[in-house]
Every structure is written in C-alpha cells, then in structure tokens.
Amino acid sequence: MKKYTYIILSALLCWTTACKKLDTLPPSIVTDNDIFTSSAGIQAYMARMYSTLPIEDFRYSPQRGLNFFWIISPFSAVSGEALSRDQNGAMQESLTFDNRPTTWSLCYGLIRDANYFAETLPKYASNFTPAQISAWLGEARFIRGATYFALVKRYGGVPIVDKVLQYPQQSIDELKIPRTSEEKVYDFIAADLDYAYTNLPESNQVGRANKYVAAGFKSRAMLYAGSIAKYNQISFVDGGGNRLCGIPSAKAVTYFKAAYDAAVLLESKYSLYKKSWAAGDKTAQYQNYVNLFFDASSSENVFVRQYHYPESVHGYDAYNVPRQLMGANGYSSEVNPTLNFVEMFDGIPKNADGTIKTTTGGKYDLYTNTMDLFANAEPRLRATVIFPGDVFKGISVEIRRGIYTGSSAGGISPLLPAGSTAHYPTDNMVQSANASQTPYKLPNGTTMNPAGLSGYFTGDGTCSVSGFSIRKNLVPDKPTSEVLENRSDQTWIELRYAEVLLNRAEAAYELNSLGQNDKNYIQDAFADINQIRERAGATLLTGASDLNNINVIRTERKKELGFENKTWWDMRRWRVADKEQNSTIYRTLMPFYSANDGKYFFDARLDERNSRYTFDVRWYYEQIPQGEIQKSQNLIQNPGY
C-alpha cells in the first residue's frame, strides 16, 4: 500500500491523504514527488496552509467559527466595543454550525499538514538551495506555532503532536495523545517561533511569514502566557500532575520578558504608518489613520491575509455600512460602536466621572450640527467610528432617534431618568418605526425624516442601535452597487506594528510591576504609548508617572485595536471579561432634533433594548468538542462542562 498526497484542484488547492491500489494514477492525484521537487509545488502547499491559518479575520465569528463565508455579526459584537442587533449569539465558539469542523479539528488538521511538510521536504533537499530549505522549514514551524497558540488560548493545555501520526503503523492507543500542561504548550510555541525567527529570511512575499513576523507573533503569545500566569485563578490538574489549565505565577516574569524581547526585535524594521500624517493637523491625522488600513505599502503591516475578488472574498462592507449606503442584500450596521467605547477617547466634552457631557445645569446642550459635539475628538476615533452627521463616501450620515416638538423655553430637560432602559416617550416626540418614514414638517416649512436615513428605527433591522456606525476597515470608495455579501476583498491586517508596540509597553509595565529592574521598563512603556498616542492625535502623556496603573495601557490598547478582533482575547487573558460583562448593559448616544430651536441635542443612556451581556468564568477555558473526547479517553474535558 502506497501513500500519496492528494490535491483537489478548485479555486483553492485542498489537501488530504489517502491510500490507493492503482497501477495508473488518475490525473487528479499528485504524488509527493510532484510537489516537493518544484518551487511551484511548494508554493501550492504553503498557500493551502496559510489559507487555513486560524486567525480571527473578516470571516470569523464565535457563533460560526473560522473562515466562514456569511458572517452576519462581526467578532467585536461580543467584546463590548459594539452593540449587535442580535444579542443571541454565543459568547464562546459554537461547537457545531452547519456540521462544519470545529476549531479543534481544523487546527489539528493544519498541524498535521505542517508536520508532514517538515518531515517530507528534507527528503527532496537536493532540488533546492540550503537557504530555501531553511526558510520553508521556518515557515512550517511558524504555522505550527501560530496554530498551537489558537488552541492554547481557547482550551489551555492540549495534546502536543510534533510528528506525523501513522496508522496502522501506530496502534490506536499510541494515537490517543493526552493533553499536556498549558505551560508546556506555550514553551512549545516559543520554541517553534524561535526556530522560525532563526531560519526565516528578513523579507518574504506579502501574506507569508518572515523572521520578524515570527517575532511579532511570539510577542503576542508570550504576553498572553504572562497574563495567564499573573491573573488566572483557575487551576485544573490531571492525574499525572499536569496543570492543564493555569500557569504557575512564578513564570509570569519569564513570559513577560520573552514578550518584551520579541517585540524589541521589530524595532527599526517596521514603523507606525504616518505617510500623510502632519503634526497639529487633525484632518491629515484622520485621513492618515483611515489610509493605514488600505495602503499595501504601509510600513506598519507585519502580517496580513489578502483577499481578491472573485476567488477569495468576505462581506465586511455589506454588514457594516450605514443603512443609507447599503447594497441590494439589505444588510447594514450589523454592529454599532457603544458609547462606552467612544468615551475612552480624548477630545470629547466629559463629566468628572469620564462620561460624555450632554447637559448643563440639568438641561440638554444644544448644537447647530451633530458633529459639533465631536469637533475636538482625537482623529483616531473619527477614523474608527462614524459619528452622526459625519461624511462618508461624500454623504452625510443621518443618524437620529427622533424629532422633539415640545417647548424649549428654559431649556429641555432629560427625556428619561438616569439609568432608565425604558423606551422614549411619544409625547412631544416624532419617532419612526421603520425605514418608510413619513417626513415631518418643521416650523420653517422644510421637512425632515424623524430618524434620518440611517438612524434608529424601532421596528427595523438595518439601523444604528447605538447612535454610531463602524468606520474602520470600510472601503471609502466602494460603490453602493458593490456593497454586497461576499463582494468585499480588502486585506485583513492580522498583525501591525502598533500592536507590537502595545505588547512591548504592556510587557514592560508588567516587568516593572514585578520588580524587574535590569532595564528602565516603565520609561520604555511610556515611550511606546506616546508613539501610539502621537500618531492617533491624542494628548501625549507627560511622563512615566502617568502610567500609574495597568489600565492606562489596557485602555490605549482597546482604543488602538478596536474592531480588529483583539479586545475579546485581551479581556480573556486579563481575566476581566466576567467582571466587565457581569449583567452589563452598554450605553448609547441618541441624537434628537429640536424642531422649535432648529438645533440638536444628545441623550446618553443605557441601551433601551435592555440587552445584557454576561460571561461565565468557565468560558475562560472553552469546552473541548465532545466528539474528540469520545475518540480518546486520554482527553480530559475542561472544568464546568
């Protein structure tokens, strides 16, 4: 019986392994000799592995898993950054959806591909230069390390498979590899990424790893490990003494140091994107931040996943544009930034408690234009979030909650008591239940739609439910006719230098807090954060003393990486998700037009749908698919399932 590697040629090469007893191989079957003797064959194998690398990009959601075509609710809807119109989605990954493979099985399939590549390529080394062999083996180890990180951050300690498992050469019992400790998995990841860093070249094709990509991923993984060691309170030990969930607190310094050192390796190799940035020019800073997500030559891009219509696509624009710009699919504004997210940024009028200031002396502040409230907001925020009345694709985005028709003599008092989740009153108010609005005739004789073209419709599923829309990653010039499901193809930036700087700053702060003084870590963290804040157009920290607690860095991370599917994992590794989402109702900002004043006012309030977020502490370690447990009694389920 002879083993062959199959390639099914379609839009994308798909790998599998099988046994055949045939004198003549069908033309659809390609042997190892066909693949591993040419650069084109290697390229095809690599393309398959990179295409299935488990990253949370445009085509990922906890409800539907990895690499799914129709993603209705982007990942940020579970992180508190945004409100979703559908709050029924799972807060951890679904174990089944359309009978698709689980993250567990997808990852172990990719690990097998990487192991097979690493074991087979050396047999064909004579066909290539030593540098090529070294680089390709480095890529295989990078892919394996990154895949194990996707597993360990979900499940804790998992089985380490570092070679191709052979059946029937190996017995069934030999194939039932037990879970190892969470600590050992992180050490295994570090070893793979170190090997990749040593063997990879300094540059590679876009979308493939180079040595600094490996270092950047190591900074991310080791920061996660350090956080688990310091903040995790869950301990789960198997019968052999392996701590499957949890890392000894004594290892925190080791992992934070590894994260810091790995991040330093990217210094001078990448830089924050500032191609059109200008000091003191908010407009230029805003446009620069918008451009960084679309400039293929960006100095900030460390590792990306490319899409190209029609062979590889996603639907980000269709699911997130304001309603008045949606295409024929009828989707838009699936998730909307919360006021909680917006309030983290500089330049917005705020009360003493840090919440947005919308009243003076118990009466609403009035504005000629809705954008007046955000006139001094930091440019990074405006490039991340569409404000009511802001211009996108040359069109003013109309977001209103209604038209106030009552008297404004002596000022307008709050429409509802503080903390209320009740619906707005109908007295002295014109509201709209759907997109087919009846225009209201204003005192000056003109007409106005009560909710605007993208505002809050109480009976419609295509509107803003928070008072804001997402701006980041939306293509600024995509025609409405192309704002369709699976018609978007902008590049996903999985790792950019801003995250590396944030990794470095956080690791440095943690090392300082743990008494490490071999370097001036707190000064380093201060410099890193100010690099981020300067480019953002935010107020600079005045000195290292401003870093008086870890939340300064965590907040900066949430702002910079908002809607990039990172905050959810940060909340989990910091072990704060259960606290931040303990029956939490997030806040919204509803604009109203006062008909008698000809001006706008804003009402900051809790989500009137009374949508509550929560997080069960057991979800810090996800459920291992029951089907995998049934295959091997050596696999132990995580606690609580």
Description:
- 32% of the residues lie in helices and 11% in strands.
- It has 641 residues and is α+β, with helices and mostly antiparallel strands.
- Strand 8 and strand 9 form a beta hairpin.
- Helix 13 runs antiparallel to helix 14 and helix 13 (497-513) runs antiparallel to helix 15 (550-560).
- It is globular, with a radius of gyration of 26 Å.
- The relative contact order is 0.13.
Helix content estimate: 25-40%
- Cross-sheet strand order for the largest sheet: 14-13-19-20
Strand proportion: 5-15%
Q: Cα distance, first to last residue?
A: 42 Å
Tell me about the biggest sheet?
A: 4 strands, mixed
What is the general shape?
Answer: globular
Uncertain runs are 1-24
What's the count of strands?
A: 20
- Which structural class do the helices and strands define? alpha+beta
User: What is the CA-based Rg, rounded?
Assistant: 26 Å
Average of the residue pLDDT scores: 92
Number of helices: 18
